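Subject: Aldo/keto reductase

B.,
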Amino acid sequence: MLQRMLGAKGPATSALGLGCMGMSDMYGPSDRAESIATLHAAADAGVVLLDTGDFYGMGHNEMLIGDALADAGFTRSHKRDDVQISVKFGAQRDPAGNWIGFDARPSAVKTALSYTLRRLRVDHIDIYRPARLDPNVPIEDTVGAIADLVKAGYVRHIGLSEVGSDTLRRAAAVHPIVDLQIEYSLISRGLERDILPTCRELGIGITAYGVLSRGLISGHWSKGQGKGADFRAHSPRFQGENLDHNLALVEELRRVAAEKGVTVAQIAIAWVLAQGQDIVPLIGARRRDRLAESLGALDVTLTADDLAAIERAVPKDSAAGDRYNAHAMASLDSER
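Prediction pasted inline below.
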């Protein structure tokens, strides 16, 4: 497995990480046995970074990862320190799963971590981060509370998620920030304008989620998918004429991938990998076959001609629809 650094002051990690959300939430039903098998397969392939959130399935995802790490299939070949667990916290949900706010007060930070450690059955979290900026709490207070947990040995490193340049600077003045988790893909390139240069100036790495835009540019999505509990049914890019437009972009990308002899998903992931050694894509595979396909991106070398062809197929800002609905977009510090 290729290695990359998480920022100037962070740890070495695998060039690809595994985003675990879909194993518990947001994309409809998943298979528990297949999820655990996928986690084991990722570890066997050298994937070090596992990304989760305490609100994914209201704790289910953390417990699932805890079970996978404690399973004999993992412990026969691996140790706890063979993986790095990245956890987001702060999103508040009611018993029906509705989103009801955000809480990143120092007391809430420490309470959330206590439950996370218990659910995961570990004694520390490798990277701990607020999932969003709490508009009612100065970022200095939130980061300061996590810094206390670093000093106490419960957290190794501090990350952030979906924040803008001003917040990054204020946070980094309190404690080193190893990475910013933010959506980045061929059709989500907003961070290139200001946030990515700021991260590079401050020595902050990028863990890129949504590299396949929640499956939209995976080459596997088609009209009629995403119903019921799958939140993509309500996502602007997956609706009506927006979906038709975006799937047409995918077909253009498919032609480039075919000429290269790779899949659409592989060329899309390889494009993100090619944007800099400080970027670690998080792949959202929840099945072993999808994991294997995504790992194949590591064998794809994109030439200058390849990158130009990809740019012609999917020009910057060519996607139709926002990446979240209007309410969620308004809550993103990174979009201000």
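Residues 240-260 form the longest helix (21 residues).

T.
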